[in-house]
Write a structure and sequence with these properties.
124 residues; 73% helix; 0% strand
């Protein structure tokens, strides 16, 4: 159903005039206007009340969502930590010398390059 045009409104007005008479028509118009105003006011109150309740509900939900996201990130970090480049406390030069010493120790297992430990030959 579309909107009422001029012709439709004219027909409705004529039928109302014939049914209610010319004396009652202004009173009906006033009461109809009051009823429409009350309906509009009640609709606006209901809409604003609904929006207030939705806002009251949304705020705790947003807080709960933030808490859950933060907890999820913390759990993810606990179970899947991001690998950090570790050099075991050595500088890049220290890494190279450590690699060389491990290579040399593989080649000659009988020699020890540590100053604290004396070189002891392995027993067979």
């Amino acid at each position: 159903m579309g909107q009422l045009g001029f012709q439709e409104l004219l027909i409705i007005f004529i039928i109302a005039l014939l049914v209610f008479g010319p004396k009652k028509l202004p009173e009906l118009g006033k009461s109809l206007g009051k009823g429409l105003r009350e309906f509009k006011r009640a609709t606006e109150d209901l809409k604003s009340n609904w929006e207030d309740h939705m806002r009251d509900i949304e705020e705790p939900l947003k807080d709960a969502r933030k808490d859950l996201e933060e907890t999820g990130r913390e759990l993810k970090q606990d179970f899947h930590p991001t690998p950090e480049p570790s050099n075991n406390g050595l500088s890049p030069e220290g890494k190279d010398s450590a690699k060389e010493s491990s290579t040399e120790s593989k080649e000659s297992p009988e020699k020890s390059h540590h100053a604290e430990e004396p070189a002891v030959p392995k027993e067979k």
